[in-house]
Amino acid sequence: MFGSQEAPDRRLTLRVIPRNEHPVSRQHFSDAALKVLYRLHNAGFEAFLVGGCIRDSLLGRMPKDFDVATDATPEEIRQLFRNSRIIGRRFRIVHVRFGREVIEVTTFRGKPRDDHADHIAQQSDDGLLLRDNVWGNLQEDALRRDFTVNALYYSIADFSLHDFASGIEDIEARTLRLIGDPATRYREDPVRMLRAVRFAAKLDFHLAPSTEAPIHEHAALLLQIPPARLFDEVLKLFMAGHGVDTFHLLRDYGLFAMLFPEADEAMVELPWAERLVELALASTDRRIAEERPVTPAFLFAALLWGPVKLRLAEREAEGMPPIPALQAAAQQVITRQLQHVSIPKRFSMPMRDIWDLQQRLPLRRGRRVFQTREHPRFRAAYDLLLLREEAAELEPGLGDWWTAFQQADEHEQRHLLDKADAGPAGPGTARKRRRRRRKPKGPTDNA
Ligand code: ATP
Ligand code: MG
Fold it and tell me: Which percentage of the chain shows pLDDT scores above 70?
């Protein structure tokens, strides 16, 4: 089942670059990362920094976190660090914790074989690696990594860089290239397609033609990945400061539809739905650049608003009143979405509140307005309203009214309320509003 050895690749020759010939310095690394390296080294193990931290240092960027590779087994690592725990089953690694910083330590991986027991290595009939816990040496480990630029190792023994797959060449050419046969590597782990797109957007790299070519055809393999893993991946895709570029690449490669099928469909049916998502991602990117907080609840609310609107229209066409129709639409959209990308309750609950508030924002009479204003999700709901207007889903007006209302003093607020009562900006006439008031209280009224 574990395919035979691929033909030798001329790119796969080890190059060792001594300390005085590369710019990666210990000053780029956190104290915690260095502590882990030295303790492994002093205990007689090999220890290397690998992955994003070396790639990013070579590109002159601050590493975001540190990954260590070693010949120590997870149990041996556990024994060296009291502050550590073994996580993962599919891919066992050790997390060593120093305050808020976590150093990920992995044991060198080797090539899985058919005679390995299932708890060590296991592969599905279509090539998906279900377990990948065969230990190997440094060279074997390099060939198990995804991209050549992620297979650069910094040795704590002599501070040299080990480049097994022409990673430095690819960094210089700003190229993402999978190690080995791309189709096989995507079948082993389809998330590598998402990682390709994520790194391309983050680093402003392009995909090597051979790495790019199989993506369209293999995109549907993402449907095999557990929704919880895809949730983690989606956060990395959209909440790392390059969401707009990432979104466009995901759409171009047919990957977005595998993560958010209903949102993808809504973008065909509703002229504003794609723009709304772009605007939400642009605002998220901006906030991250300004180091302001962002929440997945807002982003998911915008991503799935198109599908909610489509289903809401269906329920209303069946004669359901607006409030229960929205509840039903929201429930249906969430249920379908959870089959692809999970959304933990702590994000899906506020997401629903943000949707509910879209129905309350147009109701601008008396006490109602103040209740809406006091709602814990008001700010996020108001932000979504502004984006909906900017995306031309709605006529402008209501957003400005709420902007003015928030800035107004008590006297001006009363004036704005009178104006809303008389003005055309609301969803209906005064008579309609009176009718709505006589209706029994919907569940959102209690929020
Ligand atoms: P960043 O942390 O900046 O997002 P990274 O490259 O460090 O990027 P991690 O997810 O931290 O990414 O993974 C660390 C390293 O582990 C990668 O650089 C790569 O060598 C290897 N790796 C991670 N995920 C995979 C995968 N799905 N297949 C093969 N190798 C992987
Ligand atoms: Mg990393």
Answer: 92
* 182 C-alpha to ligand 2 centroid (Å): 21
The amino acid present at 391, given as its one-letter code, is A
From 65, 67, 205, give the residue whose CB has the most ligand 1 atoms within 8 Å, as the site to mutate. 67
Q: Does ligand 1 come within 6 angstroms of the Cβ of 163? A: no
Write out the DSSP string of 278-332: HHHHHHHHHHHHTT----HHHHHHHHTHHHHHHHHHHHHHTT--HHHHHHHHHHH
356 is catalytic: no
- CATH fold, domain 1-181, is Beta Polymerase; domain 2 (3.30.460)
Minimal-distance CA residue to ligand 1 atom 13 = 51
**Nearest ligand to the C-alpha atom of residue 194:** 1
Yes or no: say if 234 and 341 are a contact pair by the CB < 8 Å rule.
yes
* pTM for this entry: 0.90
Crossing angle of helices 191-203 and 227-238, in 10° steps, is: 10
* Architecture in CATH for domain 227-237+254-423: Orthogonal Bundle (1.10)
| Whole-number Å distance between alpha carbons of 444 and 430 | 21
Task: Verify whether ligand 1 is closer than 6 Å to residue 212 (CB atom).
Answer: no
Residue 211 has pLDDT above 70, yes or no: yes
Supply the pLDDT for residue 420: 81
Q: Say which ligand is closest to the CA of 146.
A: 1
Calpha distance 19→268 (Å, rounded): 54
CA gap 234, 349 in Å, rounded: 18
CA of 387 from ligand 2 middle (Å) equals 33
Contact 337, 343 (CB under 8 A): yes
Domain boundaries, the chain: 1-181, 227-237+254-423
For 76, residues 6+ apart whose C-beta sits below 8 A from its C-beta are 45
